[in-house]
Structures are given as structure tokens and as C-alpha cells.
Design a protein that fits this description.
about 500 residues; alpha/beta; Rossmann fold; catalytic activity; CoA-Trfase_III_dom_1_sf; CoA-transferase_III; CoA-transferase family III
Length: about 500
């Protein structure tokens, strides 16, 4: 198992950043701290370390340009394992108005299903499916497809009785092809034989590739007021068109380092306030309808895009294109743009257009089957082979979401760094599937890790890891602080409450 520091070094190499910057980042190796058989603590430290590490390098570069010679003390950054895993559990710990968010629909969970004949090589002898029901239209669409009531009277027992009679793989496939959300359980061996799994395996190249799109001249970072010069991304403008956890986490990280992040909501889309109050921190918000039927909002969006540095979006591949904004159009409007995209299944393969969420990807690609077997071995002390039919077990946090968010923010900052040095617009790509492939490559943690007990809100609060600010809907937001600890030097981490809602002010332009 590579250490957190080695894992960070490997990520750094994929983006051609100066290796000297790594000497200022420390990731103490504390082993696995969550109840899991995977190295999620390493993933948390490395992805957050990469994200804050490139921010520190950008700040060093900007400060050196201001001095035009001479030296000054540079900040050292320490990402402790316990702080990183707390941040990976932020949506479970944060509170708005004193209340935690309701993250899951009452019908959410994993359900036994019929085995799909013939059984796949390496697949489980029993079968399970997992729907994603957080959005009302996804929940009602699934219930309607299954012939169950959509008036709120369907119970988990009713849903379970219906699903147990249906073949797992075929049912999940039908649901996904309707634009709804469900995956069937696979083990790692079964996933590796699947066409989408083979695409992920063949792609390689690390979880966060950068592509230079043109040969525009260098675009230096803007000059900023002296009272904000300790924020690495001060003066950078970001349009954030993302939802749920992974994409919004990337935008929040950029805002934490000083970027002006404008969170763009579509007024007709359903909201997730239980998540949004945490992931929208440090941002401003605006509602814009980008459908072709609303030329006024489209014109305002294009005006913002024209002077933005970053467009961050989590539509499915070709989703923004269907609204009339393919990447070529975006570059026509702004030829210096860093265009960052996040998807569930990647931009290639038969599943590229399918919807997906962290819990569904975990379920489909082998993590939950492997975690379930490891849990049984921990409890009973006996070897359990793949395909033995044990109950699947979810990871103890949304590790794919949070890793993807920080990795994407890392890639965006790497692109901004390269743009300032050698010029060019950039395309930054990440998917939950590529992140899952990366986490799997880190190997397995000892079974004894299942005895770990995550810190509670109260324990984190006692050691100063809970912040408080006035924010969403005018309520007090209590949140998990950003995990890097700054030692010496000047590096400011901005932690504020965020917008007061989905359209909290009339935004005519950028702050800076």
C-alpha cells in the first residue's frame, strides 16, 4: 500500500507540476481511520493534499512575481488523516439551524433481487440492486416503472417485494435506459469483464487528465488588493454548474482558496437543501435557465462566461452541448477558458450517457461486494470468496464524491497554473468511475480497520474542527473545517457561510 505522501507524489506527476512544491506538504501516515477494508484515509489525505498543494504553489508564484526578487517565509501545509476523513464525511456532520441534513429518501437502500441467468463469471450467487431516490422525479419515475404508487404510500416492504422477483442486471439496465437511477451489484471480477469496466481499465493515465486546447498566450494571475494577497486564487472567477456532492465540493474548494465562485442553479431543477447548505459555502448564487426558450438568461450566462476563468460543470457527457454550449462554443465566447467536467461513468463506453451517483458507482464496480465479504471475514474469521452471496456493505463515507471533488479542484488549479506559464485553454476531466479505479489501485486495509469508530460532531467540535457562520437561508451553518493546517508563512483559508439561498442576490457581474 503506498503511503499518503507517495500517493500524492504520483498524482502530482500526472499534471507536470514542479516537484519542489511537494516539500512544503506533509501527510502524516496514520493508517486507515475509518471502518473499512479500503485505504480511504490515504485517498482523503492525498486528494486534499494535492488540492491545497497546488494552491500553495500558485500563491508562492504570485507572491514571487509581486516581490520581483527577494524571499519570504513560505507556508507549510499539514493534512492529518483524522481531519481529512472528517472532511470526507462533511455532509453527515454539518448542520443548518442546528439540524443535520436529511440525506436519504425513506425508500433508499439496497434490495435483494433475482439472479440474472446465466450467472456472470465471478459474479455473486445472490443478486442485489440499489436505486437512487434523492430527487423526487427519480423516485416517482422508478415507482411508476415498477407499477407501485407514487402518492407517498409505497413502503420499503412493498418495494422489496417487487424487486425480489425481478432479475437484477436486466432490471437495473431497464431503469437506467429510462433515464432513472439504479445499479445492480457486481464483484470486482465481474466488473472487470463488463464493457464499461474494460473502458475504465484501458484508459489509465490517472484520475485527473489535463488537455491543452489551443495555443493562446500566457494569462497571468490578476493583481489583487494587498488585504487579499494571501488567498491563492483571489481574482479567479468560476462558474459552478454542478449539483449533489462531488462537483460542488470542487467549487467549494476553489472558493476556500479565494476564487469568486458563482453557483448557477436552474430554477426548474429540484433542489437538495440537505446537501446544498454545506456544499455552497464560500460561494455566491444565481438562478439561470439555460434552455433555448429563455434568451435573457442565456445572454446573462454568456456575459459571465466571457470573463470567467473556469467553467465547472457536471452535466452528463453532451448534456451542456444539448443546451447549445458545446466546448467549441464556450471557447468561442472565451478562448482562455479552463473547462472542467465531472461525470459518473466517464466520457467513453456504453454507460457514458447514464446518470450515476457515488452510491450507485460503489455498488456497480465491486466495492460493496468486496466490503461485504471483508466485513464477514472480520466478524467470523473465515475466508469468504468472491461470489459467495454475502450481503453487500457500503463504504463508510461518500469517498468517490469527495475524492473526485478535490481531485477536480486540483486539476483545475493545475490548468490555471499552466495557463499562467505557457498559455492555452484547458480541458480538465474527472469521473466517479475513474476515481473509483484510482481508490481501488491503493489496495486493501487490514480487516482490523473495521473496529475504527469515526469521530462525532461533538468530538470534532471539542478539538476545534467545527466552524460556524451565518449562511444558507439566513441560518447558522455549522460545518467541518477544511483539513489542511497552515504552519508559518501566509496562506489564508476562507471559510464563510455562503449564499442565503439559491438566488440570494441580483448578480450583474463578478465581485472582482
Amino acid at each position: 500500500m503506498p503511503s499518503p505522501q507517495t500517493t500524492l507524489q504520483l498524482l502530482w506527476l500526472t499534471t507536470q507540476l514542479p516537484p519542489s512544491a511537494l516539500t512544503r506538504i506533509s501527510l502524516p501516515n496514520s493508517g486507515e481511520l475509518l471502518p473499512t477494508s479500503f485505504h480511504l484515509t490515504t485517498a482523503a489525505q492525498a486528494s486534499i493534499g494535492a488540492c491545497v498543494g497546488i494552491a500553495a504553489e500558485i500563491l508562492r508564484m504570485r507572491r514571487a512575481a509581486e516581490r520581483n526578487g527577494g524571499t519570504e517565509e513560505e507556508a507549510e501545509l499539514v493534512v492529518e488523516g483524522r481531519d481529512a476523513v472528517a472532511e470526507f464525511r462533511s455532509e453527515r456532520l454539518s448542520r443548518c439551524g442546528g439540524e443535520p441534513g436529511q440525506l436519504w429518501d425513506p425508500l433508499a437502500g439496497q434490495y435483494p433481487a433475482a439472479v440474472s441467468p446465466p450467472a456472470s463469471q465471478g459474479g455473486p450467487s445472490s443478486a442485489w440492486v440499489r436505486p437512487h431516490l434523492s430527487f423526487p422525479h427519480h423516485r416517482d419515475g422508478l415507482l411508476k416503472h415498477l407499477g407501485l404508487p407514487t402518492d407517498g404510500t409505497t413502503t420499503k416492504e412493498m418495494l422489496a417485494n417487487r424487486l425480489k422477483t425481478l432479475p437484477a442486471h436486466e432490471t437495473a439496465n431497464e431503469v437506467m435506459e429510462k433515464g432513472l437511477c439504479m445499479t445492480s451489484l457486481r464483484g470486482f471480477t465481474d466488473w472487470d469483464l463488463h464493457e464499461q469496466g474494460q473502458v475504465a481499465s484501458d484508459k489509465g493515465g490517472g484520475p485527473i487528465p489535463l488537455y491543452k486546447l489551443n495555443d493562446r498566450p500566457p494569462k497571468p494571475f490578476p493583481k489583487v488588493p494587498s488585504d487579499k494577497r494571501n488567498r491563492p486564487l483571489q481574482g479567479i472567477k468560476v462558474l459552478d454548474l454542478t449539483r449533489v456532492i462531488a462537483g460542488p465540493t470542487a467549487g467549494r474548494a476553489l472558493a476556500t482558496y479565494g476564487a469568486d465562485v458563482l453557483w448557477v442553479n436552474a430554477p426548474h431543477n429540484p433542489k437538495l437543501p440537505a446537501l446544498d447548505f454545506d456544499t455552497s459555502r464560500n460561494k455566491r448564487s444565481i438562478q439561470l435557465d439555460l434552455r433555448r426558450s429563455n434568451p435573457t438568461d442565456r445572454a446573462q450566462f454568456e456575459d459571465l462566461l466571457r470573463t470567467a476563468d473556469v467553467l465547472l460543470q457536471s452535466y452528463r457527457p453532451d448534456g451542456l452541448c444539448s443546451l447549445g454550449y458545446p466546448i467549441e462554443k464556450c471557447l468561442e465566447i472565451n478562448p482562455d477558458l479552463v473547462y472542467a467536467t465531472l461525470s459518473a461513468w466517464g466520457e467513453e463506453g456504453p454507460w457514458k450517457e447514464r446518470k450515476g451517483f457515488d452510491s450507485l458507482v460503489q455498488f456497480a464496480v465491486g466495492f460493496n461486494e468486496a466490503e461485504g465479504r471483508a466485513w464477514e471475514m472480520f466478524r467470523n474469521g473465515k475466508e469468504v470468496e468472491e461470489g459467495s452471496g454475502v450481503e453487500p456493505r457500503a463504504l463508510p463515507c461518500q469517498a468517490l464524491d469527495h475524492s473526485s471533488g478535490y481531485l477536480l479542484a486540483f486539476g483545475i488549479q493545475a490548468a490555471l497554473y499552466h495557463r499562467s506559464q505557457t498559455g492555452g485553454a484547458y480541458y480538465v476531466e474527472n469521473s466517479l468511475l475513474s476515481t473509483a479505479t484510482w481508490i481501488r489501485s491503493l489496495g486493501r486495509a487490514p480487516l482490523e480497520s473495521f473496529a475504527n469508530i469515526p469521530e462525532t460532531f461533538e468530538e470534532l467540535d471539542r478539538r476545534g474542527r467545527i466552524g460556524r457562520a451565518r449562511g444558507f437561508e439566513g441560518k447558522e451553518v455549522e460545518f467541518v473545517r477544511h483539513s489542511p493546517r497552515v504552519v508559518g508563512g501566509s496562506f489564508e483559508i476562507k471559510e464563510e457561510g455562503g449564499p442565503r439561498g439559491y438566488d440570494d442576490e441580483e448578480v450583474g457581474g463578478w465581485v472582482q
